[in-house]
UniProtKB/TrEMBL annotation:
<protein>
    <recommendedName>
        <fullName>cysteine dioxygenase</fullName>
        <ecNumber>1.13.11.20</ecNumber>
    </recommendedName>
</protein>
<feature type="compositionally biased region" description="Basic and acidic residues">
    <location>
        <begin position="1"/>
        <end position="18"/>
    </location>
</feature>
<dbReference type="GO" id="GO:0070483">
    <property type="term" value="P:detection of hypoxia"/>
</dbReference>
<dbReference type="GO" id="GO:0017172">
    <property type="term" value="F:cysteine dioxygenase activity"/>
</dbReference>
<feature type="region of interest" description="Disordered">
    <location>
        <begin position="1"/>
        <end position="24"/>
    </location>
</feature>
<dbReference type="InterPro" id="IPR011051">
    <property type="entry name" value="RmlC_Cupin_sf"/>
</dbReference>
<dbReference type="InterPro" id="IPR012864">
    <property type="entry name" value="PCO/ADO"/>
</dbReference>
<keyword id="KW-0560">Oxidoreductase</keyword>
<dbReference type="Pfam" id="PF07847">
    <property type="entry name" value="PCO_ADO"/>
</dbReference>
<dbReference type="InterPro" id="IPR014710">
    <property type="entry name" value="RmlC-like_jellyroll"/>
</dbReference>
<keyword id="KW-0408">Iron</keyword>
<comment type="similarity">
    <text>Belongs to the cysteine dioxygenase family.</text>
</comment>
<keyword id="KW-0479">Metal-binding</keyword>
<dbReference type="GO" id="GO:0046872">
    <property type="term" value="F:metal ion binding"/>
</dbReference>
Length: 135
């Protein structure tokens, strides 16, 4: 960090580099996820899988995310087990390179096995549990 102290007004000036680093540290988890996706998928396209290093970088960001980071709680209407299990999708971002969204699944809801052709998919379970069945 560079600090310039030779100012006539006696104030200390912090360099732009220090300000940039502080801003980077203050990113909210969803902002960090967006920024990481933007970097990981910058040179990707349909059918192109990111390098193992980039996959690890994105996985590390997802590993740290919690339900509070995206403003979800188990007591929200999306997850009410007394109602018919309606799956809700919360859209966060979409561009030509990647999309970010959250599926809210009530207890006992089911998503059939399906494919995502020419896509690399990362998933994160924020709370609850899941089971999968191989047929």
């Amino acid at each position: 960090m560079r600090i310039e102290e030779n100012r006539s007004d006696g104030k200390v000036k912090v360099s732009n580099e220090s300000k940039r680093k502080r801003r980077q540290k203050k990113l909210l988890p969803v902002q960090r996820l967006y920024k990481t996706c933007k970097e990981v998928f910058a040179s990707s396209g349909p059918g192109i899988v990111p390098s193992p290093e980039k996959i690890q970088t994105l996985a590390a960001v997802l590993d740290k995310m919690t339900q509070a980071d995206v403003g979800l709680r188990p007591d929200m209407p999306f997850f009410d087990s007394k109602q018919a299990p309606i799956i809700t999708y919360l859209h966060l971002h979409e561009c030509d390179k990647f999309s970010i969204g959250i599926f809210c699944l009530p207890p006992s809801s089911v998503i059939p096995l399906h494919n995502h052709p020419r896509m690399t998919v990362f998933s994160k379970l924020l709370f609850g549990n899941y089971a999968y069945q191989v047929i």
